[in-house]
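Extended Data, record Conserved oligomeric Golgi complex subunit 8
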Amino acid sequence: DLLDAGHRHSSELPAAGADMEGASVLPLSGAAYQPYVSELLSFSIERLHKEPELLRVDGERVRRQMQEVAVENYAAFIAASEALSFVRAQLEGFDKHLEALVEEIPNLTSGCTEFVESAHQILEERKLNQTLLANHSTLLDLLEIPQLMDTCIRNGNYDEALDLEAFVSKISKLHPDLPVIQGLAAEVKKTIQSLISQLLQKLRSNIQLPECLRIVAHLRRIGVFSESELRLQFLRCREAWLSGILDDLDQRNVYDYLKGMVSCHRTHLFDVVNQYRAIFNNDKSGSEENSDGGLLFSWAMHQVSNHLTTLQVMLPNITEGGSLSNMLENCMYCAMGLGLVGLDFRCLLPPIFEK
């Protein structure tokens, strides 16, 4: 096909030249034809007459050579044609894929934006995790404070427990926006309530003045009670202890019960009054907060009143004169001892025993 097309093109050259004859005076005036034109001008007339035949022969030779080349290399031409078709088809596929890619670019852009935001968030979380890992031991110590406080309380190390509570209270005020710290402070408050209960329970037991001083000092340091409330709690707890002692006495034997009650009041009521005065009456500032307000006197008179009421109720059950005499002697001795703290009630005893 290519050779036929070349042959037709060659045969059409004279006609095309004739058509262009009117348009250009010298059709071979182009720069590409100048060497051939120069060669023609050097020929003789005879040589010029022979030139068309020579050109025809050369054309035939060239056409044959082209045919031979086409025959020898037809496979290459076919492969080139197939390659061209394949490339054209591939280019069309590329166009479709490129169009789809262009349509997906906005989605890709938004996906990249989301990825960047997610990466920033992950990076921040990673920094937090690194900080947490770097401070793991410190954080672990903080989280173990409630358990450590509970151990200190159970072992009676109240000063150490209160030191831990003060530390947690301090960091809670420094970091009010951290849930972990606030949760830790809440657990410590629960532990402090357990400490308060244990301290009050100790006040309900048989303890001496030094232990009472330590317990009240701890309660003051906790700060859960005002000074007046602390005084009232102290007297309530000591009264509960006295009541427990009296409840343990056997009421079936009236004489033994009254004798035990008189001995209890003579010894322990005296101690409670002295303990109260030693703990709470050292303040000489005269401030209303530290003023007793007659609390101790009212409480002591209540105890003496209960003592006398019990005597009035139970003495009629004692019929032996010797027992009554011994009981009167014990009561007088008890009233005389309590007189050292301002609770002498000996003048109130004879009317009770006379009845």
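Summary. Residues 1-25, 284-289 have pLDDT under 50 and may be disordered.
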